[in-house]
Write a structure and sequence with these properties.
Two copies of one chain form a homodimer. With 689 residues, chain A is α/β, with parallel strands linked by helices. The first copy, chain A, contains 25 helices and 23 strands. In chain A, α23 packs across α24. Chains A and B meet through α12 and α23 of A and α12 and α23 of B.
Amino acid sequence: MLPRGRPRAIGAAALLLLLLVVGFFLFGRDPEYGLRAAATLDGEQYGSRNRSASSPQPPLPPKCELLHVAIVCAGYNSSREIVTLVKSVLFYRKNPLHLHLVTDIVARNILETLFRTWMVPAVVVSFYDAEELKPLISWIPNKHYSGLYGLMKLVLPSALPLSLDRVIVLDTDITFFSDILELWTLFARFSDKQVVGLVDNQSNWYLGNLWKNHRPWPALGRGFNTGVILLRLDRLRQIGWEPMWKLIAKRELLTLKATSLADQDIFNAVIKEHPELVLPLPCVWNVQLSDHTLAEHCYLEAADLKVIHWNSPKKLQVKNKHAEFFRNLHLTFLGYDGKLLRRELFGCPNQLPPGAEQLQQALAQLDEEEPCFEFRQQQLTVHRVHITFLSHQPPPLRPHDVTLVAQLSMDRLQMLEALCRHWPGPMSLALYLTDAEAQQFLHFVETSPVLSARKDVAYHVVYREGPLYPVNQLRNVALAQALTPYVFLSDIDFLPAYSLYDYLRASLKQLELGSQRKAALVVPAFETLHYRFSFPNTKAELLNLLDAGSLHTFRYHEWPQGHAPTDYSRWREAQAPYRVQWSADYEPYVVVPRDCPRYDPRFVGFGWNKVAHIIELDAQEYELLVLPEAFSIHLPHAPSLDISRFRSSPTYRDCLQALKEEFHQDLSRRYGSAALKYLTALQQSQSRA
Amino acid sequence: MLPRGRPRAIGAAALLLLLLVVGFFLFGRDPEYGLRAAATLDGEQYGSRNRSASSPQPPLPPKCELLHVAIVCAGYNSSREIVTLVKSVLFYRKNPLHLHLVTDIVARNILETLFRTWMVPAVVVSFYDAEELKPLISWIPNKHYSGLYGLMKLVLPSALPLSLDRVIVLDTDITFFSDILELWTLFARFSDKQVVGLVDNQSNWYLGNLWKNHRPWPALGRGFNTGVILLRLDRLRQIGWEPMWKLIAKRELLTLKATSLADQDIFNAVIKEHPELVLPLPCVWNVQLSDHTLAEHCYLEAADLKVIHWNSPKKLQVKNKHAEFFRNLHLTFLGYDGKLLRRELFGCPNQLPPGAEQLQQALAQLDEEEPCFEFRQQQLTVHRVHITFLSHQPPPLRPHDVTLVAQLSMDRLQMLEALCRHWPGPMSLALYLTDAEAQQFLHFVETSPVLSARKDVAYHVVYREGPLYPVNQLRNVALAQALTPYVFLSDIDFLPAYSLYDYLRASLKQLELGSQRKAALVVPAFETLHYRFSFPNTKAELLNLLDAGSLHTFRYHEWPQGHAPTDYSRWREAQAPYRVQWSADYEPYVVVPRDCPRYDPRFVGFGWNKVAHIIELDAQEYELLVLPEAFSIHLPHAPSLDISRFRSSPTYRDCLQALKEEFHQDLSRRYGSAALKYLTALQQSQSRA
């Protein structure tokens, strides 16, 4: 978060005008560029600070010392960025960490789920509500695009617990290439008076000579960059940090109107007046990759590169002759499988996250030699979950609104555009991806005009782990994130009728379904075997295609019992919703209230995952009502790896059978004799098989 | 390579017998386990050696010093292992490297291609023929499963160039978690007499008390492990290393019969007699993960873990209470995208690998704003290629043998088993995968009885890079690796007739195709739209299905010109091969000699990739002969991402058009007026469109 740069449009226009007048050339939108001709590098200053880098390392703190890191994070994009930062820190760290995250509500929702499911040992996460900090800094006019969040680092000494005496503060656009302990160790270099450790700003911004009448905030020489800060919180509180920076900021604001680079301007103004407060840090701890950075002077000479800072608004697309090098470093962690970071710290007291111990015990009880071991293990797997991976606008509250719920993996990405054309309403989709695929997915959406225009589609990334597709866990993630009163539980290979969204809302309204009447509305399912086909606009057109043999009722040839109870011949003629009865193996696509039963997560891989859910609905006495004008059509695709394994492996089928039986045992426990009919049906179908 | 362990079956049986007799419990098949009750840890010995780890670091060698690493590598499995080792070294290194690889012919073929296409800056690779070294060590009886290769580290002083004075020697089952420069730096600790640096063996093997009458080779205490060695080659040559180890080995062999742990036994015997030759290294430089390792004493206390050694024959499946931790570390590099290691070394003289400079220039000339930029970039991309990724048995030389050639990505893996059932002959398949997917693929083959039984299928991994599927580059990789005189150029979604392999060989023999007669034999293509269908055993059955509408000629509805010239109605009746004429957009599946023209790599993504190849065949005057009994059937699948983009993006179609035109310009240049007919055809088809 908080890269310096991109002033508000008005500011940029004013600057541009100025530049045109004085004839300077504007290099880009980043106000931190340096005009090299106009500014010579102050070698002495760089040199002297860098020499401190090669001074003898202070002694290491005791093994297993807890390190504290504070990060301000708001919104969807920063919530993705911070994950890469945290991965890079975890990759090299050998100490327990306590992350102090100052977040808005969006980032908090995302990151709470993420860290809870990530289950990294020896990592504690605390959240602080950014909303509460706003009044403390909202009086400061700020031109930086990070807005109020950009200023929040100033108030950390009062926002963080009083018991905390030191903390490393990081922007979200930082990547580590070294052990954060080394950075923490630099606290030992602080003199008695120093309260803040900072790296030089690696641009000429604060020299104030970028263009005529360029008036930056006051700073010591080239100033300091606040992407990486060591804060002695205890001393800051002692010296009265809050009145100090407020006084200086208010005084400067008399002439300067607003901050350009948020907190960084104010930190620099304070340091200019109180240089004794700052410990300059070696440049390698904050190698700044703004568009016209001077960082080359740092990294070409240094033996080692510790931390890079993507402080151009262009981020990875920054123009820089070594950009490819830095991108490759960064991509390492962008695509890194986060589950590999669930590593214990040898020799440190066990610090398992909540739930991890029970999970380890349950996993330890599994028998690797048992034929269904893979199923058991997959069922227990806790997948990392990153909800609302992309920007999202929650739908307004409407009493009969419906969210389409589905799940997919990378090989179904090409369904999304068509789905968006067929379903103009909100969607909640779970995607089963690796970390690297999540980045490809991001690129896919960004480059699709259809997808990037839709802000009512929420994408929830569930990270891959294990050999079997956790279909029902995915459905439950998508279902839990649906925000409308009703959900349409669909599958990704189906395209709904163009009118379905409107029709469902109208039907829900008309049927007056409320707390009194529990119903599941059935959307009849069809299939085409053709790659290209012209989607029917109406029920009449659909029936014509059906009669012509271009369409079939879904899985009519392979698995008729899955949809037979929908009673397609009655549907042909129906003018009003009609009730149907559950029977064995029925698995229609239904519209239900959002608080409907969850899917049974024991069903992983192929088979019976929806059947079990419909049984659950029936057991809870949901009426099954078929809608006369609703339909949805399955498009052809190659069989999934799971269905191929189901077909070719007797063990796979045996394991599925075992799951079914266990499911029925649970059902009997929960519903007693009412569940008898399901067991009877199961036994009948087995004796037929 | 060369993990200590797994003695030959006879040796194991003898040991087992012994153990049964004396009543000891055998922990596993790894001869390096320790019987904890029988052996107490010699803390003093460990402690004293570890203290040297915390002694002040010697000064760093000059920046950019070239580091030399030697590795013995033979066979398919070691050729995969070494890649992970090299990735881990490259990830942390900051120095130029020279890899000295002692290889058999299999490993050399694989690794030459791999390093050539990897194009890592500042890495030089030299190959040494293991075959030539065999006579130097083949007189030593060795029970270790690594066979002769296990002994080759002994002769490195004479095998490596005389100009080389020091080298780090590594087994292939090593993973680095630190900069190899730190290890290199330990050379500075050698006294004037020391010639070899080694880490303690972290098991009780050499204590000789594992079972009654266990007689290991002589060693100093617990002995040393030779998975990581620092060798002063210059001094070894000076002190007469070769006669020295030979003499000692011969003497021991008078009583010991054979080495159990290959070179390691001999190194230890020499050191026992000449302890002044060895510098003990800190244990963290070779943390040994054998089944009953004592390594815990090392890594639980150490601040840092530098190198791990998977010296159990079970490798990653080793039973160890911290196995998960070490596996996660290792998986980091197993799945790491190797292209990210194409990083320059800042501040070191430019050391671009062959071809890299021209490539960089060509890429630099591309215009990012040009609409077809992605196509241009993809065409220029040099993909890393790992040929024969899995064990492979080349087919015997037979004059009319045919290899099926195809390419695929992860989403078509489920086709492989069916393909194996339909095609009993050799196959050469290119797989477009990420590094992580390559591991999934390995697992997929290992767990499939059908696939793991087939040693005549060669899998060539082409690593993913860029947004467009490089279909023709993939085909060329698979084609170049086909080892039979003829190839059947197919696609992965097609299943050949069960009889096709035999029929093609018979036809090739009968037609007496030789250097005089250039022909491409056409295998007519059909398609089914059904997920499940019963594959026709004969042409008659196929024709029945065709008449019944269950089968169609391939792409009859969407792209009839692609196969129309095959003349299906003539084929129905044909009894003998018949000649057909090329016409526009024809793209049959053909059998051709292995030295046929390559595919044009400019066609990336969807469209025209096979059409261009058939034009090339026609231009080179290949006769097109349709075979009357041959057929192959396309199975349904969802449209690929590329075809979806082709259909939805006008730019994509425009770019394909531009590629076609450039292809025709090249064609005219090469074939002159003979190529006119192709251009005319193109123009006609455009005017129709």
